[in-house]
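Final report, results section. Input specification for complex C-07:
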Amino acid sequence: MKNDVRIWHILSYSPKVSLTMKLTTILLLVSVFSIQANTYSQKVKITCNLENVKITEVFEEIEKNTEFKFLYNHGDIDMGKVVSVEAENKVLGEVLKELFSETNISFKVRKKQIILRKAGKNLTEKSVEAGLFREKYLEEQEIVVNGIVYSEDGLPLPGASIIIKGTTKGVISDLDGVFEISLVEGATTLVFSYLGFATKEINVIGKNNIKVYLVPSASNLDEIVVVGYGTVKKSDITGSVSSVGSDELAAFPSQDAIQALQGRAAGVSIQANNGGEPGSDFSVRVRGATSIYANSEPLYVVDGFPQGFLPAADDIESIEILKDASATAIYGSRGANGVIMITTKRGKTGPLKVNFNMSYSAQTVSNKLDLLDATQFAAYKNDIDVLAGRAPSFSNIGTLGKGTDWQDEIYHAGGVQNYGLNVSGGNENIDYYVSGLMYDQSGVIINSNFKRYSLTSNVNFKISDKVRSGVNILARRAIKEGIESQEGSSGVEGSGVVTTALGFPSTVNVYDTDGSFTLMPYGDPLDNPVANATGRSRELITDYLQANLFSEFDLFKNLKYKISLGVTTANGREGEYVSTTLLAGRNIGGKASVSSSKRTNTLLENYLTYSTTLNEDHSLLAMGGYSYQSFSTEVWATSAAGFLTDAVSWWGLGGAETVDVPFSSLRESELASFYGRLNYGFKNRYLLTANLRYDGSSRLAEGNKWAFFPSGAFAWNIHNEQFLENSKALSQFKVRTSYGITGNQSIAPYESLATLGYVFSSVNSQIVNAVRPNKVANNELTWETTAQLNLGLDLGLFNDKIQLTADYYRMTTSDLLFQIPLPEYSGFSSQLTNIGEVENKGVEFSLTFNDVVKTINWDTSLNFSSNKNKIIELPDDGIDILYSAAPGNFPSIQDTHVLREGSPVGSFYGYVYEGVQQNGNELLVGAEGIGGERFRDIENDGELTSDDRMIIGNPHPDFIWGWNNDFSYKGFDLNIFFQGSQGNDILNFSGARLDLGNGLTNATTNMLNRWSPTFTNTNVPQGNEDRSLVMSSRWVEDASYARLKNILLGYSFSENFLNKIKLRSLKVYVSAQNLLTITGYSGLDPEVNYRDSNTSVGLDYGSYPNIKSYTLGLNIGL
Amino acid sequence: MKLYIRILIMCITIVFGSCVKLEEEPVGVLAPEGFFKTKTDVEAALFGAYGRMASGTSWGGNIITLLQLRGDMVDIGNPGTPLRRREINSFTDDATNGMTAGIWPIMYSIIGAANNAILGAQTISGSESDKKALEAEGRVVRAYIYYVLVRMYGDVPYIDSAITDPNSIESISKSKVSDIYSGIISDLEYGVQNLPYKFDSGARSRATSGTAATILASVHLTLENWQAAYDNAKWVIDHKGDLQYELVPDFQTLFDATKQDGISEHIFAVDFLGLQRHADNDDTTGPKTTISEVGGWDVQVPSLAVYNTWDSRDYRRKVSLDDEILIEGVLTPYTEWNISRPHIAKFNRFVGNAQTDNRQSDTNYPLFRYAEVLLIAAEALNEVSGPTDEAKGYVNEVRERARRWPDHIDTYPEDVSLSVSSDEFRDLVLEERRLELAFEYKRWFDIKRRSLGEEVFKGPNSLEPRANFDSGKHYLLALPQDELDRNTNLLPQNSGY
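Structure output:
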């Protein structure tokens, strides 16, 4: 046991001197986790004047006047040595230097301990010697207290200092946080302290086996950060990891933890897929999209469960975002898009605590489009009629007034009720956290609602000294119901509510004279917006259950084994009824469908962790394990049409005239993995990390199923170098670099196999079994591979009052999954193939600053990320790939986007709009005449052809940012959170449809500025029903924005008051979300995302409007 | 140490116990390997090919739309209909036209399905005659699709085996029209020899030897192999009892979806099942020919000249066109409709089960019916031996039915005049085809086959004048540009595009 890392605690007892010595000695030895060199001693100044006193008196004097304690072994120090000290406001370090200058004592300052040693003596020998003292002492003293020190999230704290109050006697906890201390006579209280955590005092009389939980304090250097298969102190991190804590996540009521994460972490971009739609999904990109066609969502690891489902924000303790390869490669084939680690809350030792939170948010539409009213529309329509050589449609313009405001018809005031109750607590053998939450949102469009009920139960227990176990159960029901607010790619029949409300002319009433809904008078037969919002009912109920059981065994010293078994199921049921008031239901007597799905994900995880320290300088941590995960998705669905009445909804399929062929499918896949990690640290200065994962996936072609994903990282804690020991300003200075390979295996099962597909076929009106080849095999299918380089810097100034983290990264993703179009004469349209390359590179900064000015505490943090996405290589020798992301009922628009080498994925492609074709301008062959849209002749050949198109927009921002501010003053706290995006373009399909000018839909008030022979100084063309929609820069706009996402003012009642009303805590707050948005974008909202894919970013089409909320909330603690 | 050992054992057990193969064994997903075992499996593959013929992109809609609009009998109704259709109608389409480009892949997908069935027929064990019959059925489907393709596009790639490795055909060239016809004829002759006269079900959507012979007659007619065209048509006429073919007495019955299954006049038809919403069973010709007042789309609407030049005594005009319709209980003449021209009635008057706009109807769309066999025989025989009594007899048989109204027998159209010349007879048969087979997507191929374009689009009696028509260009469609981009060996593009 020469290299034992267990810390000997050496007591100050010496038979000869113990009774006479005022000072006791404690000698701490090594800890595998480094303890920060502290610059505190360089700041503390003392004044003392002692002449010819015993050295121990000097110690006493210093301890009295500073927070420092002396630790030493009696044998090393000549207690009777007589010294003199003269110091006038002198830095402590210098005083000590002088004091020991003529002795054989060397000293070292660690935290607030001054450790004295006999110069040149080996510590390990010393510790053995010290152990002998201890044994002697124990023979004579009986009152021994032991226990474990934990951080508040239940992780053992090694190296915590435990001091008997009123003395300087104490011990240090060992690697497992275990301590044992003998009380001196009359002592009752122990003081627990640990750098970065608040000091805690506990009365220990009559107690034993105590569990002590320490809560982090301001300094975050020793914050524990969750990484794959373990945790690491922030100071030991070699990779790029962002952390977001529970305070930020619960800053305002959010339907989902991802929503709460928006703007909180550098390098993480989050967009709602459909504006403010209750229950809508979010698109998350960590450091950009590494792929073109494959899914680029990050991997979610919930309490160690990869691909687990997300708990509600209120139940989350912290979220860590692993960004570089050194952090993500441990998840191998799933790491390329970043990993989001979610840790749910745990109970803390102490009495049972009850927290009750409630809030109510009143919500309104954040913005409406300015559309033509009836009078304006009629004039516009008449102009078009005249141009087409027809009689004007409206002869009664003067009598029309404002007409119908269709937006007002479908919007109403919404609201969110949010309730949460949790109970937590624990003792040394068990801790628990049980929470129930309810979130009930009524959307701002009629008939759009979302409800969520969730239950979280985390229980951890100690089975024996060497075995710990825990159960973690998350259950949730999510109910999303109501309208189709945004249409998919279907044609006119599937028009979204917002689209129809924007497009319906204001001259049309909601109802006909006979009480039925009016119909679209022009062009495509769109559904009446109110009919659309009331005639289509949908309900999606998803029940989630995630259960995870783990046990951890101390196999022998330094070696731990952890096994966990988990299962997640998500059972969804969707019902839809389209009534006969809508186009899609009218011709078939109503249409109903019910579908169900069951997704199951099971996990077995085993790993061993070994940690040790060699001498004092080398720390080593090795982890290795094996995991097996299986996935299955079952889907079954049926639909029918032709009902007696619209009242049957989807629960009367049996009464249908026609029943469609039902559908069912099963998809299964497996993932098996071996993984390992090695961390090595030398003197806390040089940190090395190596990760390796060997993943095997059933989804890939035979022979390509297994692959290695390695990564390596190096970090240098420069501030721990001797040459910076005296630096006053620098409290943290670390540089990091990493490189590694990760994968993206988001390939559906069976993609490498050739398949036969079912065909609907009938003979003599009898349905018959029919198949056809629908997919050709790819025997070489493999995963996308991302190679990532990361360079990082962590800087802490003025005792971490200012902290800066900066990262540069470059990721190259190759073997992109591409549906390569096959020659169509093959009978197949495409084949999934690995080809092509994409690069993402960027920088990220996060800056935090905290200060106390008088009694106002100000914490601010700013994050900034800039990512550049570029296509390096495309198939077919890199020829441009043109594609359309236009909505389904935009028949005339052709390609809207291009994939081009050297340009970002999702670049907008089309003509350059040059304003209105004015009289006297050269008229291109094939272009619209005077008063029409004029486009640039890029080819300069006098003709407008498809070759005159170019890249006309980039949907990716130059940078995104978030800025959070917390102020507190006495019981008040104020939070102000801004978030924004700069330099991204939006392709405004909504605007294009309205302002095309063909008069078949309503238009925005832009069309009031339309060209006419008497009003030519404008860039808005005249109305013309023959104009077809052309993709041009006319529809591309800069959509930079800055948004006041949240502002909150809270008041926490004082302890005096709370004692009177017998509450532990009470806080009331008011807040507002999305109160203010600064943008030049002309559409409804700059935060849009129509169609969620890498190839269609920044599209605006009939999104659910963004929501402005005012929240009133109350938190009660019992 | 005991604990340590225990746990080590546990670890090892778990690691090895969960040793996985990572093989994919899909349930509910069919793999082609080992699929074909019995006759039923091959039939399922054949039905796959037939099912694709009923898709919205093939005879459910797009192929019919393209052929109708290209001809002189059907014009665009709603001027707001998508540009791709208007371009086809006005001869302004180019290689990127969505209809041209959309029809190509579905045709080859049907060919792929047929090739898969042929492979299946060769794989299974069973009686030689059964295997040959199944193979023949696949080959007739394949031949028919190539027959359509070659007339639309000219030289095209000719694929006659199931594709498992797309690389193998990535850079092949087009086959010559004559070579493709050789393949077609060979497949059809194999069909005539090996297929049964009829199926027990009487199904008209499955190819029989009569189907093969009829298509063969049509192919030879197109190739102006008059004798062979006549011989094959004559074979069908001679075997009409065995084949169970005859003219139905009432012309309307042919277009009554409730009476079409197994109807004796249909030789080859695409089978649709009403109100079944599937991409492979999507009839949009119903709404495309229906007036918008009752929910239709007003897409395929004949010019007024088609109606005005058609003798009102001809019962076929009554069946083929609607000139008045009940709108909300009121009989409304076409002059009051949004698109004030008579609309096609063949595919929307008696649709069986269908949506109220006539989409997803029960209508079986005929590809060949017995009346056409008579007209092929007449036309071919005239070229071989002049307007013989036999030739005239075939036309008269068709005309006799056209006179037969439900409540009376009209005098029009009269029997063919005894003194008709060969040239007159040729024109007369083509006119008979135009009216008898009106809106049955035959007219464009007749115009092309007989080079009638200049006359019907630019002549004085044009039903549908088209100044853009160019006989040097428009008898073929453009090859789809994206396909040429994928395989440049398919160049050159058809002349003029």
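Confidence is low (pLDDT under 50) at residues 1-39, 121-141 of chain A. The first strand of chain A starts at residue 45 and ends at 54. This concludes the modelling results for the funded period.
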